[in-house]
Amino acid sequence: MIRDQKGGLFASVIDWYIARKVRTSFRGVWVRGTLPSSSNGLIAYLNHSSFWDGFIAHQLGKLAGWDAYALMEEENLAKYRFHTRIGAFSVRRGDARSAVETLRYAKSVLARPNAAVVIFPQGEIRAGQGPLGSFSRGLEVLARSSKKLSVPIAIRYAFLEHEHPDVLIDVGTPHAPGDLAAYEAGLNDVYAKVMQARSTEGFTLRIKGRSGVQDRWDSVRRLPTETQESPAQPAAQP
Fold first, then answer.
1. Are 71 and 102 in contact (CB under 8 A)?
2. Is residue 125 a contact partner of residue 49, using CB atoms and an 8 Å limit?
3. How far apart are CA 6 and CA 179, in angstroms?
4. Distances (CA, A) of 14 to 9, 23, 82, 83, 178
5. pLDDT < 50 positions in the chain
6. In whole angstroms, what is the distance from residue 159 CA to residue 168 CA?
C-alpha cells in the first residue's frame, strides 16, 4: 500500500491550490449541521459523485479543524502521489490482503491526535440522484475495530439562484460503530435531505467563492442615487 506523507512545504502549496481552486470554481460552499470534533478520532463517510469530492472533503477538514486523512484507490494515488502530502493513503480494491493492511494502517492513523479519516464507501464515483447503492464493508470493520465515532456527510453540486454552482453539504449526526446497514441508512438519509434543497436557505456559507453578474449588479443598485441640488445662482444684474 501507499502510506501518507503528510506535511512539509509542498503540502502548504497543495493546501493553497485546493482552496483557490474551490473559491474560483463555485459561488460558495454551504454547510447545514455541525461538523463534529475529531479530538478522540473520527471517521467521516461521504457520498462520491464527482471529481471535486476529494477537494471538498479536504476543505471540510480545514473548516472543522481536523487532522484529516483520506482513503484513496491505489491506482489513482499512484498516478497522483502528491495527494499523500495532504493525508491520502491507499487501498487496492479487490485485494483482500491489501484491504487488511490498509485497515490496520487506518486504525493506526485514527490513534493520532485529532485525526479524522475520510472514506467514500461507494468505492467509485456514482453520479445521479438515486439511492447510493451498496457500501464497502471496510467502513464497518474500521469503525468497529477502532471504536471511533462516525459521521455521515452528503455533498451536492447544484445550480440554484446563481450563475455559478454551489456546493451544498449536509452533516448528519455522529454515531457509534454499527452494522453496514446503519451506515447505508445514515448516509442515504442526509443525502436525501441535501438533494431536496431548492435554495441555500438553512445552510451557512462557510467558504465564499466567485461573484457573478447578479452580485455586481446588486452592488451597483446599492450605490447612492440621490444627488444634491445645486445652489441657486444669483439673478443677473441689469
1. yes
2. yes
3. 31
4. 9, 14, 8, 8, 35
5. 227-230, 238
6. 10
Give yes or no for a contact between 71 and 118, defined as CB atoms under 8 angstroms apart.
yes
| Residue 206 to residue 167: CA distance in whole angstroms | 10
What DSSP element (H or E) covers 69?
Answer: strand 67-73
The Cα–Cα gap between 91 and 103 comes to 9
Instruction: Report angle CA 233, 235, 237 to the nearest 5 degrees.
Output: 135
Q: Identify the CATH assignment for 9-218 out of 3.40.1130.10, 1.10.760.10, 3.40.80.10, 2.60.40.10.
A: 3.40.1130.10
In single-letter form, the type of residue at position 13 comes to: V
Q: Look up the pTM and report it.
A: 0.87
Start-to-end CA span in the chain (Å): 100
- Enumerate residues 6+ apart whose C-beta is below 8 A from 51: 125
What would the grid cell of residue 175 be?
Answer: 454515531
The confidence score (pLDDT) of residue 238 equals 47
CA torsion sign for 49, 50, 55, 56 is negative
What is the secondary structure of 140-166 as a DSSP string? HHHHHHHT-EEEEEEEEEE--SSSS-E
Give the Cα separation of 39 and 139 in Å (integer).
Answer: 20
At residue 126, the pLDDT reads 86
Cell reading at 92: 487496492
Q: Is 183 left (phi over 0), alpha (psi -120 to 50) or beta?
A: alpha
